[in-house]
Amino acid sequence: MGTSLAFPPYDFNTASNSTVIGFEPDLDQALSKLLGVPFVLRVAQFPQLVLGVASHRFDIAIDGISDSRAREKQVDFVDYGQAALVILTPTGGAAQVKSVASICGNSLAHAQGTYGQQTSQDITLLCKQRHLAEPKVVQFPDAPSIQLALESGRIAFELEDTVTGGWDVLQSKGKIADVPITGFTNSQYNGDFAEELFGVVVGKGQHQLEVALRDAFKIAELTTDERGTLGRQRAEYYPRRQADAVLELLPTR
Fold it and tell me: Please, are residues 244 and 165 in contact by the beta-carbon 8 Å criterion?
């Protein structure tokens, strides 16, 4: 199983603790138990996860990986969650953010190989269409690096999903604010990530594995309160905030 350990609260570790923690490691343990198969963790950089499954380096990858038509050309997805977007910005300037157009002409961060890379392109297109200055797009290796840049004011904005965004705000202890998005939907621009679905990445043609994963998710959903492990991990690692649009754990299809 491939993962990056670089996207809290999906999965991560701390400088003082090498143990992998987060929403998805606990979910992995539950799925492993239900499937009766031990998961062997393989750590890689986030951009290598989809490629690793496509090349059979990993059987699956789990790391808050967004489903998209481009990625589905290489791999399949067992989607189990859906998140919306939120604007992250240093707290001092949050009151001046009225819509995504506020990003135009300012620095905009994204993590390499993630959904944010496409979103940055979408925002650039929006600014052009409104005859506004394009954002200065800056790429970072991972989400924690962007959090530090936002806290220090080196970066003005990031568009993040409500899972990681909510976590970053809470961990920043008041240095980062989240602002609800208005005036923008991905479907207006590329449409590829319009539903903001994320899930387990599975190799093409691995139908038996897909079915087993879907069945395991259904058991986890139906056997305990609040969808069992899924509901418990949502509550532990993702306290809902007022600015968050949605985080939904989906009935597996």
Answer: yes
**Strand order from edge to edge, sheet including 6-7:** 6-7, 11-14, 17-21
- CATH match for 85-188 among 3.90.460.10, 3.40.190.10, 1.20.120.450, 3.30.2290.10: 3.40.190.10
Cα 223 from Cα 132, distance rounded (Å): 52
In the predicted model, what is the mean pLDDT of residues 88-111? 94
C-alpha–C-alpha distance, residues 57 and 105, integer Å: 41
Domain boundaries, the chain: 2-82+196-249, 85-188
Topology agreement, domain 2-82+196-249 and domain 85-188: yes
Is pLDDT at 15 greater than 80 in this prediction? no
Convert the pLDDT of each residue in 42-87 to its tens digit.
999 999 999 999 999 999 999 989 898 889 999 999 988 877 788 9
Name the least confident of 31-35, 123-127, 207-211.
31-35
Instruction: List Cβ neighbours of 87 (8 Å cut-off, separation of 6 or more).
Output: 97, 100, 102, 103, 157, 158, 159, 178, 179, 180, 181
Which amino acid is it at 30?
Answer: A
pLDDT computed for residue 61 by the predictor: 96
3 state DSSP class of 158: strand
Q: Considering only residues 39 and 240, tell me which one the structure prediction assigns the higher pLDDT.
A: 39
Question: 2-82+196-249: CATH homologous superfamily?
Answer: Periplasmic binding protein-like II (3.40.190.10)
